[in-house]
């Protein structure tokens, strides 16, 4: 089983006093692609104005440009601890017991715009690059779509795709993959079901935490549903290849 999460634009500061080592990242076949994107990111970071435009950030966020300039030498920490934001705040990696973190190391993958899919415990630096960033001469979707899905969805593993639609578009899984896309929805009193935006990130983080705390490899979607429901999540099958997680807006 693979749980596939989107990254977050916000990152925690600090880490170990070691630089990025691409050889320590999961999915080694992506090393050359990662190296090329890192080279382009560092190159544009020498031009602050061009970086602000490429990253679609304001002058008040100049610190992000410095992060990118030092991306190869700045401290690293496990990806699951590096990312912040709603999904990862709900996941609350710091409070996970060692058994759950060990399970995450082999079963949780995060889809980075810069590094592609990475393992939860892969040591990474703080950086800024989003799915819609515009590096000169680089089209992120065309860069990742041909290579990343070969690593994530090529085998027989059950893939629980908790990514946002933007990151699904960046690297869509191959047709025929044993994957299930999670849609977070709410149901009104008249039975109308509609997708949620504001609440979906927290719900995905909490569901991910449930699966990590369970810390057992699940082979079928029925097993996933059983674990989720036992933990109090209301989750059902939706359209083909889709899971629906029902949440209240209260």
Automatic annotation (TrEMBL):
GO BP, sorted A to Z: response to hydroperoxide
Protein name according to UniProt: Peroxide stress protein YaaA
InterPro entries attached to this UniProt entry: YaaA (IPR005583)
Pfam family, one: H2O2_YaaD
Entry GO CC: cytosol
């Amino acid at each position: 089983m693979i749980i596939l999460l989107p990254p977050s634009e916000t990152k925690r500061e600090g880490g170990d006093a070691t630089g990025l080592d691409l050889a320590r990242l999961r999915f080694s076949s992506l090393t050359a692609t990662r190296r090329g994107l890192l080279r382009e990111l560092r190159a544009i970071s020498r031009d602050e104005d061009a970086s602000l435009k490429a990253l679609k950030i304001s002058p008040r966020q100049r610190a992000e440009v410095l992060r990118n300039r030092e991306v190869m030498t700045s401290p690293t920490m496990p990806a699951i601890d590096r990312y912040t934001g709603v999904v990862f705040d709900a996941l609350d990696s710091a409070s996970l017991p060692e058994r759950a973190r060990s399970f995450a190391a082999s079963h949780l993958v995060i889809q980075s715009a810069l590094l592609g899919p990475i393992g939860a415990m892969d040591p990474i630096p703080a950086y800024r690059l989003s799915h819609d960033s515009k590096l000169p001469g680089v089209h992120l979707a065309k860069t990742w779509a041909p290579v990343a899905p070969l690593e994530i969805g090529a085998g027989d593993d059950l893939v629980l795709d908790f990514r946002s639609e933007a990151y699904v578009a960046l690297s869509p899984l191959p047709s025929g993959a044993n994957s299930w896309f999670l849609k977070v929805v709410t149901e009104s009193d008249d039975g109308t079901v509609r997708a949620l935006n504001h609440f979906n990130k927290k719900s995905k983080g909490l569901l991910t935490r449930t699966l990590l705390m369970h810390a057992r490899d699940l082979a079928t979607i029925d097993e996933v549903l059983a674990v989720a429901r036992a933990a109090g999540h209301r989750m059902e099958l939706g359209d083909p290849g889709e899971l629906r997680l029902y949440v209240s807006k209260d």
